[in-house]
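task queued by scheduler; priority normal; single chain, no ligands, no partner chains; default sampling; output format set to structure tokens
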Amino acid sequence: MSRRYLWLLLLLWVACFSAYSVPTAVNTSTSRHLALGNPSNAVADPAQPNNYLIEREAYALAYQRDSGIARWVSWHLTLTDFSPAQTDRYSGNFIVDPTISALGWPYATHSDYTNTGYDRGHLTPSGDRLSSDLVQRETFYLANIVPQAPDNNQGPWRLLEEHTRNRVRAGNEAYVIGGTIGSNGTIGNGKIVVPAELWKVVVVLPEGDNDLARITAETEVVAVIMPNINGLSNDYTEYRSSIACIEQRTGLDLLSNVAPEIQAALAGPHCSTNPQKIFLPLVIGQAEGTNESTPTPIPPTPTPTPIPPAVRITYIEYNPPGDDVVGEYVRIVNEGTTPVDLTDWILRDEAGATFVFPFSVVPAGGRVQVWTGSGINTNEHLYWGRNQAVWNNTDQDGDGDRDTAFLIDRNGNVISTYRY
């Protein structure tokens, strides 16, 4: 047999072997959403159905076929992602995920959530993705949605989303990772697990380049674990946790691309043995001085500061004609000689109903009114978006239907109170 003929047989054998061999999935992602790491080393390999990587313009996520929800979703947030808005919020039904349906796996539908008592809760918020119709619609794909208790979704979870956007408006960018823990049963005829808890980690950096190299032991980090139940406080700081605790609970490696010594500095302590214990400052940084046996107290009613403020509450319309929700408002006036930035300040009543100010600067001598109902925010008018009244209506028989408003700055100082 000639040498040339042997070479031809060898080439034919290699070609046949290559045609029938199964390629190994390799994670070579360049997605900006995974710059800090792929928390579970997810890959787009159908042979790994419970750690399946989906990468989109809006986010990256690890999908779990057997639970019908994401294990985690990760996204990068800059100001151009949501402001100024280039598109309107999508208003149609939530969308069957095209990747999941194309794989032939069971998939969630809009109607699976109907009349279940759970919201269709976004992991990547639609409010973070207003740069195009495509990325807005991608946030409504049902792989990005989990069954969420209304008081969780519309309360502290939403307020943390607003806080994150406010930090970006202040000249920062953010890397956000959110996900699920455990099970409170299922919906959709067993297709979709209702998570027992939801968690989130927010890493905040000043705007710049080479983000991974700019993360230090002093970098601002917010970490929370929230029970997926009703009856929660609106104050998301009550559910603060640590990266180490979330990793302990989930088995994930949340900042795997960050230098190990920086990861260790940002991780904070492991989970407390008492899941109700609050043990970590909201902004972790180096997590110095934290001690899981020494809870950080959160007073139920703040005490006013003795310093006369330039900004104060001057009036509450607590009993307007017509619908209270539509007509209620609180007037706040800046009596100083310089503008005051109210971003991330809090307005609350005695019962704990809490409004977190979006980006808002009140000029010297100016004022802003916080309305209880819904509307479009302007420089002088902000809207709480509630469907229930906040401020008690006083009566004439002296039985004590009064209320007190507290205006609290971003450092927790009570700047003004108004009793009526």
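post-processing summary
- Residues 311-419 form a domain with the Immunoglobulin-like fold (CATH 2.60.40.1260).
- Residues 10-27, 273-308 have pLDDT under 50 and may be disordered.
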